[in-house]
Amino acid sequence: MTNVHIVNHTHWDREWYFTSMDALVLSDQLFSDILTELEEHKEANFVLDGQLSILDEFISLYPEKITEIKTLVKKNQLFIGPWYTQSDANFTSGEAILRNAMIGDFESKKYGKKMCIGYLPDTFGFNAQMPVILQEAGLDNIVMWRGLNLNKHVKSPYFKWAGMGNKNTVYAINMPQGYGTGMLLEDSVDFVDGRLDPAVKFIKAYVDKDILIPSGNDQLAIIHDLKKQIDKINKIGKYNYQISSYPNFLETLKKDASSLETYKGELRDPVLARIHKTIGSVRMDIKQEIFHLEDKLTFRIEPLMVIAKKVGINLSNRLLVLAWKKLLECQAHDSLSGCVSDSVANDIKHRLKESNEICNSIENIILKQISDYLDMKENEILVVNSSVKKFIGNKTVTVLSKNPNICFEEIESQVLNSKYVDSRENILNETPAGNQYITEDGYYILTIEIKCELPPLGFKVYRFNSDSYDEQKVMVKNKSIKGKKIEILFDGSTVIYKDQNVKIFDFVSLIDEGNAGDTYDFSPLKNAMASRLEFNHCICYSFGEYEEMKLEGNVKLPYTLEDRINHTSNKEFNFKIDFLIDKNDEIKIKVDFENTVLNHRVRLALNMGEVIKYAKASIPFGYIKRENIPLNHWKDKYVEMPVNVEPFDKEVSVNTDNYSFNVFTTDTREYEYLGNKIYFTLVATTDSLGKPNLLYRPGRASGDTTKKGHIMINTPMAQLEHQKMSFEFWIKKDKVNPNELRLAEWKHQKILPNIAYQNQNLNYFINRIDNKIQKFDKNIFIEREYSVLQGMSIENLVSSVYNSYYEKDAFVIRFENPTNEPIQLPIDTYFDRFQVTRINALEEEQTMTSTIDEYGVLSFLVKTK
């Protein structure tokens, strides 16, 4: 008889249409009941969803129960972790997913141990590099549900899954009918014959070995007296049912590992379950905040804390972990996707606000204290390089000055923007001689671009003086801007791109269309057409080495879906697009608008001038080539329309037969190409959590809203009405199929943040806590040019650098190889003054190597000798 492994679990959404506080209240009884049941039935076990955050919150109510929990964990009755939250795997960076595993592992230690299963039961599909991420997180497996196509990817739901480089292989266990296959397990003929046996039969069509049946569902309690129920079920059913666990089933699978197929690629096919391919653009206000905070933590705050520790400024790593936790709570699959109620959306925004405040204050303290130790004057500015590579190029800094025109010593500079702050009267000035009331002078807040050289993972101080020179933007009459070899023109209605080889009309445009969908999916109105938004005003400027074109448009659009159906355009919609060409013929595009229209989608369209053959999209630690799949007769194969809308991690290379255009942005992560054009979604607004019978998603509504007893949930906040939106893109033309290493180097260059600090007393609130930061009496002696790497520059790509979670005086550096060829690292050259140990993301020692596999990563623990 077929052995069927029954795994009792709960899938615990921290928030969804209910809030995290609602979930905490539910956990009070349910989690307490779990502990009681496991104490009374030693043969039983239970999986607490796979995320530590929900257990930490429960323990905040019952700290006295931690000993009981540790005992159950040790006995393999209660399975916890390995993640901190149940992460999204398409719109989250590889580093953020690794932090989820790192913090999950870190927090699990107080309970004894974690479940070493890459358990992601409800994530809406998976990026192709999950095996690389899992291996780096110390996991050799994944248990998941959505995205697998048994008619295309593999022939069995149990297989081996390899990363893009055919390395980093993990065991993959798919639950083809979902994590609720055996929910509400009961020892009745109706249940066994009607639900349980048929579920096993379905899987047996693909599997000739042991079968996994998860028994649980959303916020579902533990099954009481499970052994007794299983015994009765075995008298009714056709198969040999047994109490099991995910680790036990994995060990059974490994015994016959040689028979497993191997698959390489992403899991995003909506065959056995919906994956919501257009979910990447709902609640874009929240998504943008999450994207930017993720980058701030990875590329700004973590390297700053490494620099700070090396110069003697000690800030607790727990502050950093707290900031990450608040972000990770926002990156859970429902939360990041935006398929939540408005009440939850407010909670997400508040956590993002708190995490940003932690980050900003950490940065403020570090830069202020460094400037104090350096005894910096008001006419000096501290500029930081958070990269491990020496920086040569332009940085944008903010300077406060009583003079609108300043000039830096030894380096070139250019004022990009100037804002005057008026003087104030009757201002209190506290002095040793007593209080004085003075007139405070006015001052300028200057945005300045400087050309500088900065040491790797370090800083340098630059001095500036007042200058009589005042360079202003000069408006030019012709409606075109030029670089070295390219030109952007406006012909009165459309934008034209021109170079030595090609002329592309309608190069950039905005496209608007109605959205009859919900917070899970975009869906068009039946028989409705998208409309192109026309520009009606153009101004061009020249300043320094830049030329800039500003376009504006003003149109009337239908305000509501009903207005669209009735072809009534009754709401004013204003938009702006700025173009800037730099010295490298790279084009910066900035789109701004206030959203005044409901239930619609706005996309930026880039015309490539030729038919697009494929797109090469950046994904965690690599690139994936995607070609459109045919959509005819899709209802015969899929549960939702498998639209060719895809995620990307900041960069897409769009290829025709003769050339490519590379596109970089941190403001959206969703694209689609059709014919000559690639479309980047800017917003998709909606009024409902879930709707039934959409054109792109027929049948039931997602999100339970049309289940018996449920109600429709309105989401007015997801309309983003009167929300001001801004998006920046960088574009450059390239040859066909550009080198992946060069693409990645360009992306890393664009990611680099501008970090600078001026020790001034004109405004203590340019930085939030400037006037509260203390100067401690320490003997810290640092030079005005300083590098953690002591003069060395690392040329290979580094995905992150951060202080060790476990070692007091060490930091971690993770290299990435986003190409299809192995890369040899000159480790001895890079770290000849340091003690280096190869580790994984959990800081567990690994076999030493200096070779990064194709599309792989390599992490090292670095200490001073």
Task: Describe it.
Helix content is 23%, strand content 30%. It contains 15 helices and 46 strands. The chain has a 10-stranded antiparallel beta sheet, with helices on one face. A hairpin with a 4-residue loop joins strand 21 and strand 22. Helix 9 (284-310) runs antiparallel to helix 10 (317-330). The radius of gyration is 29 Å and the shape is globular.
Q: Major β-sheet, in short?
A: 10 strands, antiparallel
- Shape estimate: globular
State the strand order across the main sheet.
19-26-27-28-29-38-35-34-31-32
- Count of beta strands: 46
Global mean pLDDT: 96
Low-pLDDT ranges: none
The N- and C-terminal alpha carbons lie at a distance of 61 Å
Task: Indicate the percent of residues in helices.
Answer: 10-25%
The percent range for strand residues is: 25-35%
- Structural class call reads alpha+beta
Per DSSP, the total helix count is: 15
Question: What would you report as the Rg, rounded to the nearest angstrom?
Answer: 29 Å
Descriptive key words:
10-stranded antiparallel beta sheet, 46 strands, globular, 23% helix, alpha+beta, 865 residues, 15 helices
